[in-house]
Amino acid sequence: MKHRILACLLTLSAIAATPAAVSQTAPDYAAIVAAPDRSDADRKLDTNRAPAQWLAFIGARPGMKILDIFAVYGWKAELLARAVAPGGKVYAQNSEAAFTRVKDRLDARLETSAAANIVSVVRPFEDPAPPGMHDFDLVTFSMPITTSLILVSIAPR
Questions:
Q1: Which of 22, 48, 75, 90 is most buried, with most CB under 10 Å away?
Q2: Which of 109, 112, 55, 111 lies closest to 84, judged by CA?
């Protein structure tokens, strides 16, 4: 397991590259989290994850291209999609095994207007980016451990 995490982190650093045309103005992260069309299930997850602070910390901005590794059913991907709109895109990656478990919930999320700029990607963790895709402005990875969630983000500096 440690080797997979290390391999994933090394991959993240390799595929995060120079940012494209990204807005210098941060969106209102609190408003994103408070959006009335977010699901009750997502709001429940918000209680112990501090999403507005996380979005501010990683600096998600309109126009960004983000790879969200281990997106599962898309709680994080949807928040990112809202932050990078308009003009941005979020690639929500899951392994084949993870995707099989979450397909119905992720597909339902992708039908919503908030997910219009999310692309579902089924790829192995060792090679998470879609073929030929690089130059991400930000790469995120989350690893649930017991009742905590570790959120990792890598951005070029």
A1: 90
A2: 55
User: 16 burial class (0-12, 13-18, 19+ CB within 10 angstroms)?
Assistant: buried
Full-model pTM: 0.79
Residue 113's CB is within 10 A of a number of other CB atoms, namely: 6
Q: Looking at the chain, which runs of residues are DSSP E strands?
A: 65-69, 89-94, 118-122, 138-145, 148-154
Tell me what pLDDT residue 48 has: 85
Distances (CA, A) of 144 to 71, 83, 119: 11, 22, 22
Q: At what angle do helices 51-58 and 75-84 cross, to 10 degrees?
A: 50
Q: Judge whether 140 and 76 are in contact, CB under 8 Å.
A: yes
The span from the CA of 77 to the CA of 86, in Å, is 15
DSSP state of 28: -
Residue 143 has pLDDT above 80, yes or no: no
For the cut 70, the answer to whether the pLDDT of residue 1 exceeds it is no
Q: For the chain, list the domains and their CATH numbers.
A: 2-154 (3.40.50)
